[in-house]
Design goal:
single chain; 503 residues; alpha+beta; Heat Shock Protein 90; Aminopeptidase; five-stranded antiparallel β-sheet; globular
Length: 503
């Protein structure tokens, strides 16, 4: 029998049903493998979220119901509380300050504060006419790499001893990672980047193994004939079943660099049979050195965007020169794995020429159009946006899943909230296949967003990407770019960076 990965409970908006809701959440979490301590934390967060919906999501005296879904995810559980009550703007929530409680007994914002303390991730999703959701994500307790080895072995040395590079060619094989080898991937990531890598999952071997079991991650390793670990690369699906995946987690132990590991790993990743077939792959190539960009050129994973200030400047690249202390920018690259269908896309007039150039660079020939009066008048009233926050990267993404006339208002509210959270860079994704994008983009740019690039075949269709820098000034001279298209794109973005234009 297939494993049940999602359970849903529908209850009335009545506090007398709270215990039933909490029992449902707790027992499902226990079924998914959580132990006593974590169950208490999940139940606490669930109590705050469910109580908030019952007390505040509906008009006084209104009799309604809402849904609670407990979903198994590769690393734990996601609890989704969905209602169609009064619209809610998470950006207006007062930030709870524990230091002020004793002074003036203020408790505003305490519920959200407690939720964030109890689970790993709390997010609020505005679904427009479909209502809204509160998401609570809790990961199963897995051991960090530090728990596998004595702490002194993992101390960061500013000047670690140079490894002996193996000059002669050695025989090795490339294959799927075995669960017990996940620890070697974590160690390799540490040796390459210390604890500065953008995704903390890389430091939790059991999480890597679980992501591979769910096929959300496809990990390949290069190992010698004596079964000594050399390197790793992976395809990471944004979610199981996505059409595109990211080429990422590419590490080769320094002594084996020059053996062609990354070449063979990438070849197999692109060509192997996959449980969830892909139509494209994308990658983020760092700009503090040219090595990664050269790999992208080799595999025709071509430039289509630039994410400015995507990571903190503390990201470490051991054994590679050219480090910079300003926030790290990356080149967004894309490769079709199957011939793309010809689309009609609606880029904003100002950016049409650059959008055409980027599509040509990745090998797509689409039809370009501007919306007519009928299409503009048919733009829906309500929008649906999703906001994803990446705390370790100090950045966020806003996805316009449906673009309506209130999109600018919704994005502005989300932007305000993200800036208050002191996130450095915020990226906005708009569907190029939606005529509303052409009509609404100029108003979004007035909020301080500016051009970033394109990303084909996302969940919202081919996407136009804008970016916003939150009190960050870029020194463009420190951004290293390899290709002519990349250089032209950097200049194009620089000319439109409102932080420079305003000077």
């Amino acid at each position: 029998m297939a494993q049940l990965d999602s359970l849903k409970l529908t209850i009335p908006n009545d506090l007398s049903y709270l215990d039933i809701a909490l029992s449902f959440i707790r027992e499902t979490a226990a079924k998914f493998g959580f132990a006593k301590t974590e169950l208490g934390q999940i139940e606490l967060a669930g109590e705050e979220a469910v109580t908030n919906v019952i007390k505040h999501a509906f008009e006084k005296g209104e009799h309604s119901s809402f849904d609670i879904t407990c979903e198994r995810i590769p690393l734990g559980i996601k609890v989704i509380i969905k209602d169609k009550g009064i619209p809610f703007d998470a950006s207006l929530l007062e930030q709870y300050d524990p230091a002020k409680v004793s002074a003036d007994n203020r408790t505003a914002g305490m519920g959200v504060f407690l939720m964030k303390q109890a689970v790993d991730m709390v997010s609020f999703v505005n679904l427009g006419m479909e209502g809204k959701e509160t998401h609570l994500t809790k990961y199963l307790p897995h051991k960090n790499i530090e728990e596998y080895f004595p702490g002194q072995k993992l101390e960061v040395d500013d000047k670690p001893p140079a490894p002996v590079i193996i000059q002669e060619r050695i025989p090795y094989e490339v294959r799927r990672m075995r669960s017990e080898e996940a620890i070697e991937v974590s160690r390799c990531a540490y040796k390459s980047h210390g604890y500065s890598f953008f995704d903390e999952n890389i430091y939790f071997p059991e999480r890597l193994a679980e992501l591979n079991r769910s096929e959300e991650l496809i990990s390949l390793v290069a190992v010698t004939t004596d079964n000594i670990f050399m390197g790793h690369a992976a395809l990471h699906y944004p979610h199981v079943g996505a059409r595109i995946a990211e080429l990422t987690y590419a590490f080769v132990n320094m002594e084996y660099r020059g053996q062609g590991c990354l070449t063979r790993l990438s070849d197999m990743l692109f060509n192997m049979e996959k449980k969830y077939p892909l139509t494209g792959v994308y990658a983020n190539a760092v700009t503090n050195h040219l090595f990664t960009q050269k790999v992208m050129v080799k595999y025709a994973i071509n430039d289509c965007g630039v994410y400015l200030a995507a990571s903190p400047g503390t990201w470490v690249f051991r054994g590679i020169s050219g480090e910079s202390k300003q926030r790290l920018s990356v080149i967004l690259c894309f490769k079709y794995l199957a011939p793309p269908a010809r689309l009609t896309v609606y880029p904003p007039a100002e950016h049409r020429e650059m959008v055409e150039r980027l599509y040509k660079n990745v090998g797509a020939a689409h039809a370009y159009a501007a919306p007519d009066e009928e299409q503009v008048s048919a733009i829906r009233e309500k929008s649906s946006i999703r906001t994803d926050i990446y705390s370790s990267e100090e950045c966020a993404e806003i996805w316009a899943e449906e673009s309506g006339r209130d999109l600018v208002k919704q994005v502005k509210a989300s932007l305000h909230d993200l800036c208050l959270k002191q996130l450095g860079a915020i990226y906005l994704y708009l569907s190029l296949e939606d005529p509303a994008t052409c009509a609404l983009a100029p108003e979004l740019e007035k909020l301080g967003f500016f051009f970033s690039g394109i990303l084909p075949q996302t969940d919202i269709g081919d996407a136009l990407v804008f970016q916003y820098l939150n009190n960050i000034e870029m020194d463009y001279s420190k951004i290293q770019v390899l290709t002519d298209t990349g250089k032209a794109l950097i200049e194009y973005i620089k000319e439109r960076d409102p932080n420079l234009v305003a000077r």
